[in-house]
Design brief:
Layout lengths: L2 H12 L3 H4 L6 E12 L2 E12 L3 E5 L6 H7 L10 E9 L2 E2 L7 H7 E4 L10 H12 L4 H14 L3 H4 L12 H14 L4 E5 L7 H14 L4 E5 L3 H7 L2 E6 L2 E7 H6 L4 H8 L8
Parallel strand pairs: 3-8, 3-9, 6-7, 7-8
Antiparallel strand pairs: 1-2, 1-4, 4-5, 9-10
Amino acid sequence: MSEGQQLKLLGSVSSGSSAGETALQGNVAVSVESLSLYYGQSCALKNINLELERRRVAAFVGPSGCGKSALLRCFNRLNDLIDDCRIEGDVVIEGESIYGSGFDIPSLRRRVGMVFQKPNPFPRSIYENVAYGLRLQGNLKRSELDEQVESALCATGLWDEVKHRLKDSALALSGGQQQRLIIARAIAVEPQILLLDEPCSALDPTATLKIEELIYKLKDWYTIVMVTHNLRQAARMSDTTAFFYQGELVEIGDTAQIFREPGNKLTEAYITDRYGHFKA
């Protein structure tokens, strides 16, 4: 199947997404408003304010433990699963506050897909991994299910590699194929936003290249927020870069500008890494 056919199929996957329905609401997909996050008495994020534009790639960078992944988990409320975690402030996704009373969290997690550092396919067939979320959404006819599974696998460049073994275990795939399968599983349910938490850190260079090429294509359809320790990857892949340090947002802006001429000395020190180790 050609790349053009794959993107056409990807468009059919996304055509029912409410992201298109909100096009008239402006170009902001995610707005973080005075957000602070606490684990017990420890403050992990301090008064974060930022906006992320729709259908662009945003990269969160910074030293380990600076709060990048913690903020990412705020976008689909995974931090709710952590004992003694407390959130102040708000996150607004496509114009809707997600921390309001009685908010539908399962619905949020369908709208905001997440891919973790280590591929985590279900111990099921390749087909059933992609179909899992679709089955939860409603009673689709088998032909509809087949079409949407194929669309998601085509969109991630996996279809030609697996179409003759859809009944095989997903655990038999290579690490890179598994990660693309997880992305296919995430986009099959038509999310508005895709969160990627170090999606390439466990992969070899060849598999990493395929994931990066995939991200580049997917941003035509999804808002993508990526946590990465790989500064070269952030510079290559993202439109916007946000630099975090000790739980604070130090600087956010156009990626080319951040890497060419950062406005903060902490950002410059981290990006240039003049001494091989970041020092405040």
